[in-house]
Amino acid sequence: QVQLVESGGGLVQGGGSLKLSCAASGSVFSIDAMGWYRQAPEKERELVATITAGGRINYASSVKGRFTISRDNAKNTMYLQMNNLKPEDTAVYYCWGLVSPAAMTFPGDYWGQGTQVTVSS
Fold first, then answer.
1. Which DSSP string do the residues of 75-102 spell out, in sequence order?
2. Would the CA dihedral through 73, 3, 37, 87 be positive or negative?
3. Is the pLDDT assigned to residue 70 strictly greater than 90?
4. Which of 3, 24, 43, 47 is most exposed, with the fewest beta carbons within 10 Å of its own?
């Protein structure tokens, strides 16, 4: 069983910063890619940023220049440093991982439970 657990969400004023973490645990053989998605009330879940095992990074245009994604492969942990936060960044942030739980298995999609980020104006 693979678990992804987020931490670091909270309430912050506009212009402030937060750092999210996502730790993968359990039966983790390898992680091909990890990423952050978010879902605001009454909106669809959207991609925020992704990072591959080799370090290739992709950002949504709305967060480029403000958010930084990184990962520690040795710790199976991913981070999202969020700077200059805006009220429109308010959402539940979900950790995603493309994880192989054992050798010789196809990777599958795994999700964390989500962490709330609220940015006040």
1. GTEEEEEE-S--GGG-EEEEEEEEEESS
2. negative
3. yes
4. 43
